[in-house]
TrEMBL record:
It comes from the Bacteria. It comes from Luteococcus japonicus. This is Aminoacyl-transfer RNA synthetases class-II family profile domain-containing protein. InterPro entries: aa-tRNA-synth_II/BPL/LPL.
């Protein structure tokens, strides 16, 4: 059941998760440690997703770190669209003299991080980012990838449903226009059916990404009017529904940016559908209670708990 409304409801949910051992605060909003039962639910959800795949479908399974090269990151256009969410990795590359200078700045209370330099690595904001570069060039036939990764988006809030570091498990398709559309729609239906089987009340709605600036607002309107993105929503709080999964049709955006073509020379289309693993797990904890061992037997069986 929803846990209330306003900031106090978010604080109370965080407290419940911590008291039950599901969440351990780090001192920074949106970055948490997780308990064994929490991870067991995520593992169960991952297995349930694999079970939804078509028996006759060839699926590449890939596991990625939360980093990607800057060159690939820029090809996604994420920096142009979502600079407010961006994270870059800086590092120290100096010698002993430079190290002494860094320590001097630190000891004097200065901003020592200003002495670091870009590493050429970016924090991954969406799991599918690491997929597209691997299929640059001519694609002999459509591909399906189940991709898993940690992701980073710089939007720290007290709400435990809005994390800075989290996992998205995505179903990615690269191929024809019709295939991309069908892939997104099939997996949105799969998510809805799975969540309902697990006892969650969910709805779907057309959505848009948080594009930045005036031009971004125009992109958001276009994305929504053309129904390119859908979200699966559930009731965590009384005042606003929360997305726990989504599906995007990219058209030829990534095909063009990464040079992915079909045998006839046309640009490949792509789509993805992703589940927020922490969000889905917290939604189940809110619905069935913080004691996973007391969840309904059919839910525990479906997740292999």
């Amino acid at each position: 059941m929803p846990v209330g409304s306003g900031e106090q409801a978010r604080v109370e949910l965080a407290k419940q998760l911590e008291q039950a051992g599901h969440q351990s605060p780090s001192g920074s909003h949106g970055i948490y440690g997780r308990g064994a039962d929490f991870e067991a639910v995520i593992d169960g959800l991952a297995k349930a997703l694999v079970a939804l795949e078509k028996p006759d479908e060839t699926v590449q399974r890939m596991f990625f770190p939360p980093l990607e090269p800057r060159a690939a990151y820029l090809k996604t256009d994420y920096l142009a669209s979502f600079p407010q969410l961006t994270g870059a990795v800086d590092t120290f590359t100096g010698n002993d003299k430079d190290h002494k200078a860094l320590l001097k700045v630190y000891e004097e209370g200065g901003e020592w991080a200003d002495t670091l330099v870009p590493s050429g690595l970016m924090m991954v904001p969406a799991t599918c980012h690491n997929v597209y570069p691997r299929y640059a060039g001519e694609l002999p036939e459509p591909v399906r990838v189940e991709a898993r990764s940690w992701c980073f988006r710089h939007e720290p809030e007290v709400d435990p449903m809005r994390m800075v570091c989290f996992r998205i498990y995505e179903q990615v398709y690269i191929g024809t226009a019709d295939g991309a559309q069908e892939h997104r729609d099939v997996w949105m239906n799969n998510y809805v059916a799975l969540f309902k089987d697990l006892g969650l009340g969910v709805t779907t709605d057309v959505a848009n990404d948080p594009f930045f600036g005036r031009a971004g607002r125009m992109l958001a309107v276009g994305q929504k009017s053309e129904a390119l993105k859908f979200e699966v929503l559930t009731d965590i709080y009384d005042d606003k529904q929360t997305a726990i999964a989504s599906g995007n049709a990219h058209r030829t955006h990534f095909g063009e940016n990464f040079g992915i073509t079909l045998p006839d020379g046309t640009l490949a289309h792509s789509s993805c559908a992703g589940m927020g693993m922490e969000r889905a797990t917290i939604a189940l904890l809110v619905r069935h209670g913080m004691d996973v061992s007391a969840w309904p037997a059919d839910v525990r069986d479906r997740l292999g708990l």
